[in-house]
Write a structure and sequence with these properties.
Elements lengths: L1 H20 L4 E5 L7 E4 L2 E5 L4 E3 L6 H12 L2 E6 L2 E2 L2 H8 L4
Antiparallel strand pairs: 1-4, 1-5, 2-3, 3-4, 5-6
Helix pairs in contact: 2-3
Length: 99
Amino acid sequence: MIRSISVAAAIMAAALTASAAGAGYYNATPVAAPAKPNLIAGDLIWKCDGAVCSAAKSTSRDAIVCEQVVKRLGAVSTFTANGAAFDAAALAKCNTRAK
């Protein structure tokens, strides 16, 4: 029980850190630093500050946006949409699309 609480706390802390650092509707923390500060994934322009990449709201579903950005960025350690972090299962599914 304590272990699951600490894991949940770590996920929430990472999500809050990503949300605080990012300024967009979507925020992604790439595992490896992006080569360029800006990129286009799907219909969105992503701006990266080195640690977090952010983009404005899209008309696509959040899971699709995540898959589109990992195709360009590679795997991400966190992904948030409107301040809500993807859980471990959703993040793992998204990362299967990574380049």
